Every structure is written in C-alpha cells, then in structure tokens.
Amino acid sequence: MGANLGVTSVLGQEVGKPRERAAIFGGLISAKRRSASQSSVNTALMMMSDVFAVMVAVYLALHLHPGNASGSWDGVHRALAVGPSMLVQFGYLAWFITAMLVLSWHDGLYGRLRMSSRLHESRMTVQACLNAGLLLCGAMYMTHDATTPRGVVISMVCFTAALLCLLRVFWRYSSQRDFAKGVGTKNIVILGAGHVGDAVRGQISKHRGLGRIFKGFITLPEEAGGDTNGVIGSFYQLRHLVRQHFIDEIIIAGSCSTSQVLELIEMVGGMEVEVLAIPGLYEDMVPEAPIFYLGDFPVTAIHRRDDKALACLVKRVVDIALSVTLLILLLPVFLVIAFAIKLTSPGPAFYVSDRIGKKGRVFRLWKFRTMKVGADRMKAALASSNERDGILFKIKNDPRVTPIGRVLRKFSLDELPQLFNVLWGDMSLVGPRPPLANEVERYELKHYRRLDVLPGLTGLWQIRARHDPSFDQYVALDIAYVENWNFWMDMKILVRTAGVVLRGTGS
Fold first, then answer.
1. What's the mean per-residue pLDDT of the chain?
2. Average pLDDT of 168-172?
3. For the residues 40-67, what does the mean pLDDT come to?
4. Is the pLDDT confidence value at 203 over 60?
5. 240-274 in b/e burial notation, b at 16+ Cβ within 10 A?
6. 3-state secondary structure 79-139
7. What are the sequence ranges of the domains in the chain?
C-alpha cells in the first residue's frame, strides 16, 4: 500500500534521568488536557440539563406548597413575601445548583465513562442532591434565615433527586442506543497480546456501555512468535494499522519501556489517536496523571487527541437545523420530483445504496432514482467508457440515465433525499462524498484519511473540481477539508454550492 512502516526514535536516544522522562510525559498530558474532548462536551450538556431539572423542581415545589393552595403565581408570591429578598433567594438557589453540580462531578456522574449500575448511579445521584440540600440548609442557617418555607426547600430537593434520576436513565439509554448504532463508538487496539491484554479485551466485550469496539492486538517486539489469535500486526506497523482500521484509542496492556512509549507517541503524532495505559506496565508513570476505569481496569491517558468536540457539536446542531428547515421547505419539490420519476420510467422513485461512512461504517444512502432499474448490473459492460481516472466511475452521456434523471443531475436535485441521511446522523451537510464499498477496497493507505469525518452532501470537490477526472485531485481536496475544516469553511462551501446548483453544472 505504499505505507512507510519504519519508525524513528523520538529523541534519537533513550531518555536518561527519571525526572526528565516524567517531565516529558507530564508535558504531553498537560498539553493535551487543555483541548476540548468529546467527554467535556457531554459533561457540559448533562450539566445544563441538570440545571434545567432544578428549575423544574423549584417550579413544582413552589406550586405544590401548602401555602399556595390555589396553585397560582399570586400564591407563590404570598408564600415567599415574608421571606428574604428575591436577590437572597436567588443566591440560595445558585448555591444549591453549584453544590449539586460539583458533588455530581466529583462522584463521576458526568461524561460517558459511567460504568456503574443503574442502581448505584441513582444512589449516587440522590446522595449528591441530599448533600447539596444540607449545604443549602447550612447556608440558610449561617445567614439566619428563618422565614423561607422549609417545605419548599425539602420539596425542591426531593423533586430534584427524582428528576435527575430520570435524566440519568435517559442519558444511559441514549448512550447505549447510539453505541448499538455505531454512533460515538471508538475503535481500539490493545498493545500487548499477553494475559493482561486478553483480560482488557474481555472487559470491552463485557461492558458494551464503554462504547469501544475491539479491532485486534498489536504485538510488542519481545512478543514476536507468540500467540497470534486476534493479532493484526506488530509494533512497527502501528501507524499503518491505525489508518487502515480507523483506530481511535491504543491501550497499552503489555510491559513497555519509556523509549518504546515515546516512540509510540511519535508514531501516532498528528493522527488524532489517544494512548491509554494501565498503571504499572511501564516505568515512570506520572503521579499526577488522572486515572479512570475501563471496566474493572484502571487506566490513565498519556496522549490525548484534540478532536474539536465543541466544533463538532456546533456542526451537528447546524446540520439538524438546516436539514429540518430544508426538508419542510422542499416538501412540495420532493412530491413533484417523485411523481415525475414514477410517471416517466418504471421503478421506484428512490434509489438506495450502501455507502461507507465515517470510520468505515456502512449506511444506506438515499437519492432520487436517475437511472433505469438494474443500472448497477450494466456498469461492468460500460467500464471501457469510463471518463474518470482511477477508482471513480463517470460517463458524460451515460445510457443508463433516464430523461428526467438528466435534469435532476444537472441541478443536483437527485441528492436532496440525503437530507434525511444528514438528519439521521449518517452524513453532514459538508464533507467528503461517501464512497462505495468496492471503491474503498481499492484505497491506498493515504486515501483512508477522507473517512475520518462524516461524509457530506457537498464539499470542496463539488465547488472546485467537479469535472476534474483526476482521482488524486478528488482525494487531495477531501483531505484538505478534513485537515482544515471549521464552521466558516462549511458556511462558505454551502453558499458556493448554492451557486453551483443554480448554474446547473451537474452531469
């Protein structure tokens, strides 16, 4: 595949003093810890939902208070009229919310690595709410507040605990549903094919809620010639294997020297791969490194990727908002096109094709049908007429295209049903076009980079080199997008795509 499987030492020689080695690892951790991760975005979303739950709990506590028999806002005002000023009451509420969030975060109730049982999670949630309530009562005692209805405080704490328990169930169900669909999962390899590595694989298989998919073992140099069950390659093939299998995490489960760990980090540098390690399996572990649990195994991160999680969240919100808006506005257009297709050629109005999406995940892509039924079976006979270079297939006057199909292709109207793929999360509005499986089978290692992001309805290639026959140009533009994308780039591509569509430059 033309991949360079050789590696070079990070420092050209083994690092000497333990303090120097610890400083290197500490620098790696602190530098990467500043970057926004997917876990931090999930934590922020959960915290915001918890604050909203507290607001609902306050509303219920006030309206169900015995002093507010009418259940109206006038009754609420009368119930609180004899208490401290509204500003002080807001101060109490802010203190309760802050205490509840801090205690929940301390107890590990935020983020996606929640491996405890539902019962344990609910117990910890109730405990955090009760402790926050005690801190609130302590604040009221210290400020000599004797007029705020204690019934309201007790009701608020109880309602908050109940609502947060329901939210925890929702978040757990949401994570498991996404993981079952392959959304948000991480592909992992285990460095070390010994007993510890096999035990880690067992934990990943046992705990589906971890959201990790085991891809294979990577053998260390000293393990050569050992058990090959589940082994996909060796240490010196790591960079090649990371790209080929879309690896997100490498878990060190074998005994590694410091020089090997540094060499590993150098190999995966710039590839947005996280490196985790089980403490004790290599020397000079940084004491300050935070530890979390992967199933029953404690692990720590020695290299974290900058996955632009906040930008990805914004991108997803924009995708949902625009796709919903366009689907509503274009509903009459959908009906007209579907009717025209059915009226002018036999067969269904839609064409459904299996495509390869992010990290190699297969999904079903929807388009308006522009070709005769059975067109896929005619492709081999037309191979000699292909006008594109390499893997791509395109014929200007394709005999398989129907008359109405030519019009749809000219203005890219056949792609409109992919707005449903965008809404479902299989695609984004902007990104590399999703390839067919038989195209991916012919990829070289460098081509896999375009599959690191969600495929798009449009992209750089559509606005810059739509009629360029070169596959290398096609891939180069996609990789340039993957390496440099941001929100404003997406907006520019969408605006320019509108111009391309209106000019009717499709084929």
1. 78
2. 85
3. 82
4. yes
5. bbbbbbbbbbbbbbbbbebbbbbbbbebbeeeebb
6. HHHCCCCHHHHHHHHHHHHHHHHHHHHHCCCCCCCCCCCHHHHHHHHHHHHHHHHHHHHHH
7. 18-33+185-307, 39-180, 310-503
Q: pLDDT tens digits, residue range 326-338? A: 999 999 999 999 9
CA distances from 437 to 186, 443, 454, 463, 482 (A): 21, 10, 16, 24, 20
Scored b (16 or more CB within 10 A) or e, 399-421 reads: ebbbebbebbbebbbbbbbbbbb
Of 283, 298, 281, the residue nearest 203 (C-alpha): 298
Tokens (6 digits) for 425: 């999360």
Strands (E), 179-255: 186-191, 212-219, 231-234, 249-252
In the chain, how long is the greatest CA-to-CA distance?
Answer: 89
Region 43-61: mean pLDDT is: 89
- Give the C-alpha separation, 409 to 398, whole Å: 12
Strand partners, 187: 213
How far apart, in whole angstroms, are the C-alpha atoms of residue 113 and residue 466? Answer: 43
Q: Give the contacts of 179 (CB within 8 A, at least 6 positions apart).
A: 185, 208, 209, 211
Q: How far is CA 97 from CA 80, 100, 495, in A?
A: 20, 5, 43
In angstroms, rounded to a whole number, what is the distance separating the alpha carbons of residues 308 and 485?
Answer: 10
Partners of 299 in beta bridges: 292
Query: What are the tens digits of pLDDT across the range 103-151?
Result: 988 887 886 545 556 787 888 899 999 999 999 999 888 888 777 778 8
When the candidates are 3.40.50.720, 3.40.720.10, 1.10.287.3510, 3.65.10.10, the CATH number that belongs to 18-33+185-307 is: 3.40.50.720
How does strand 212-219 pair with strand 231-234?
A: parallel
> Are residues 376 and 393 in contact, defined by beta-carbon separation less than 8 angstroms?
no
